[in-house]
Structures are given as structure tokens and as C-alpha cells.
Design goal:
By secondary structure, the protein is α/β, with parallel strands linked by helices. Helices cover 54% and strands 12% of the residues.
Amino acid sequence: MSISKGHFITFEGIDGCGKSTQVKMLVEAMNRIEKKTILVREPGGTTISEEIREILLHRHQSNISDRTEALLMTGSRAQLTYEVIMPNLINGRNVVADRFYDSTLAYQGGGRKLDLDWLIKLNYFATYELEPDVTFFVDILPEEASKRKNKEEDRIEGAGIEFQTLVRNTYLELSIRFKERFIVINGHDTIENIHKSILAELRRRQIL
């Protein structure tokens, strides 16, 4: 769906891949050259979405069913899309998202083994069929990502390496299925080199 004057850029990857660092660097770089850009994160970003985030990640450690998890994730996303993402895009601001609907496809589809095609339809409904202009998948081995973590893990981060491996494999499948918008980035490279490669791709797509 194309409703925007601004560009919508999303970042994806398993927990600990380094995408959040790249999101912040990109937003700063775009604003430095007066490309008005905001940052959003998932789940969260609005009052309602932040309350859902607390339920999903911290309040209930073991008794959320896989389907409930998927529906809560997409519910949070629907509110963020409606309240923040679409209004900013329509008004000509760029939006950089630390996760969007591909996270549900990878985590609840791959990790929780829910039907991928059903999740795609659910997400299109939740996001008003809004699609990112480009998605950067920061790819890293789960074993390396585990070594990088230096904070207390939330409910999903603590699901283990086997779970993260399923998630990563699904991201790789998505990068083939949606190859026009998915850009796979080597997350084992240096922070600066990753940032440079992201800027280069955005210039190639005439977003920068």
C-alpha cells in the first residue's frame, strides 16, 4: 500500500544481532542531512502498544499461548501503525522501525511454528496493508548473538538458541520470498561497515 510522502525503513534480526544500534545511527544520519526521520520500536511506541509490550515480554513468563502472542504482537503493531507510522509518512516524514511485521513472521511463524501465510494475512490487516520501502535484515549466528547479550533477557529473548535458530532460518526464507525489499546485512561485520553498507543501499534506492 502506498499512502506516503515519507519513506518507511524497517530493521529485522534475531535478538542480539545489533540492529537497534544501526537503527539509531541511521536516524541520526538522516536527520543530519535534514531528511526528517523518526524512530519507532516494536512492540511499543504508543500508550496502548507499550502496555501490550509489558504483557508480552515481562508480566507473564510462561502462560501466554502462541496464538495469543501473535495476536498481541499484531494488535500492538496495528495501534502503532495507525497512531504514529501512517500519520508521519503521510506528512512527509521518514519512519525507521526497529522491527515490524516480519518479526511476527519470523518469531511466531518460524519460532512458534504458526502458519506463515495466515500470519501474513493477519499482518496486512493489522497494518492497513502498509509495506516497508526496504527491510534490512542484520544476519548473525545465534551463538554469536548470545555472547553479545549484556542485559536481563525478556520472555522471548530467553527462549534459547534453538528458538533463535528457527527464527533466523525463517528470516532467511523471507529474504528470498520478499527479495525486492529485503537486504541481508552481515551482522558479523564492524558497526561502521554495516552502517556504511546501509547508507549505500539507501542511496542506490534514492531514499538518501
